[in-house]
Amino acid sequence: MSLTLRSQSRCFDGTTQFYSHLSATCNAEMRFSVYLPPQADTERVPVLYWLSGLTCTEENFITKAGAQRYAAEYGLMLVAPDTSPRNLGLPGEDEDWDFGSGAGFYVDATQKPWSRHYRMYSYVTEELPALVAESFPVDTSRQSVFGHSMGGHGALVCALRNPSRYQSVSAFAPIAAPTRCPWGEKAFRGYLGENRQDWKLYDASELVGSSGWNRPILIDQGEADSFLSQGQLLPEVFEDVCKAAGVEVQLRRQAGYDHSYYFMATFMEDHVRYHAAALGR
Question: Between 62 and which of 33, 90, 99, 208 could a Cys-Cys bridge form, CB atoms 3.0 to 4.6 Å apart?
Fold first, then answer.
C-alpha cells in the first residue's frame, strides 16, 4: 500500500506526520496522523491508536491533546485516523454534523449508499493496522486503543470485539450505549438499517458481557459535559453492565470539566501512562 506524506514536524525529539492513502476498504482516499517517538529510531515500538469524535479529522487529536510529550517519554507511537471518508458526492453526505462526513461512527455500513465507503470498523481494525505494520517500526504484538466521544465508542467496541488484539482500552466521554441515545439511533439507522439486533454489534454496553475482555477499562467523564445531561453518553449504563459482567471499569467523574480538548488535555498523561503500563513501557 502506497502512502503519501503530506507534512511533518519535529516534536519532542520525535516526528509528527500526516499521511494520505487510497483505502481499499473504504474505496476512497483516507488520511491519518502519526507520532513517531524518538525511540522509533532504534527499536520497534508499541502503537496506541486514537479514535476521534464527531466533526473531527486526523488533525484534532495530534494538534490539541498534548499527547506527544507523554508518547515520547514512554516510547509509544500514536496513530489517529480521520473519522470518515470524505468528498464522495454521496447524497446527504455533508448535510448533518452528526451523520455522514466526520461521523463514520466506526461501523461497517450495510445500507446504500454508505455501504461502499463507510467501513470504518474494518478500516481501523484491519487495513490501517496492516498499513502501519508495513510502513513503520512498530511492535505489532503490542497495540492499544483509546478515543473520545464517538471515538470513545469506537475504541470500546474495537477492544471488546478483539480482546486478543488490544492490550488496553480507555475513553474520554464515550458514547457508551449508542443504541439507547439519539446520536447512535440516528447513525445506526442510517448506516445499518432498522434491525436493532444488527446495532448491538457496535454497542459496548451490549458487547461487554460476552466479549471475553478481562482487563481494566479507564473512562474519564466531565460532569459539566452538556452531552452528558442530554442523555447522549450514558456512562452509567456501561458502568452497570461492566459490574454485572465482572469487568473492572474505572469511571472517573471529573467535576467542572466539559466535552472539549481542554478536558482531554488535562487527563491525557493519565491515559497514556495507563496504556504504557499495559504495553510494557
Answer: 33
d(CA 135, CA 161): 25
Mean pLDDT by 10 residues, the chain (281 residues): 93 98 98 98 98 98 98 98 97 95 98 98 98 97 98 98 97 98 98 97 96 96 97 98 97 98 98 98 93
Q: pLDDT value at position 1?
A: 62
Is the Cβ–Cβ distance between 37 and 71 less than 8 Å?
Answer: yes
Active site residues: 149, 225, 259
C-alpha cell at 183: 446520536
DSSP 127: I
Angle at 120 between CA 78 and CA 147, to 5 degrees: 40
Torsion of CA 217, 99, 23, 271, to 10 degrees: -20
In this structure, how many other beta carbons lie within 10 angstroms of the beta carbon of residue 18?
19
Q: Model pTM?
A: 0.97
Can you tell me the distance from the alpha carbon of 123 to that of 126, in angstroms, rounded to the nearest whole number?
A: 6
The sign of the torsion formed by the CA atoms of 262, 160, 242, 249 equals: negative
**Residue 208, CA atoms < 13 Å, CB-side half-sphere:** 26
* Helices within 136-234 (DSSP H only): 150-161, 182-192, 196-199, 204-207, 226-229
Lateral strand order in the sheet of 249-254: 4-11, 14-23, 28-36, 77-81, 45-51, 138-148, 169-172, 217-222, 249-254
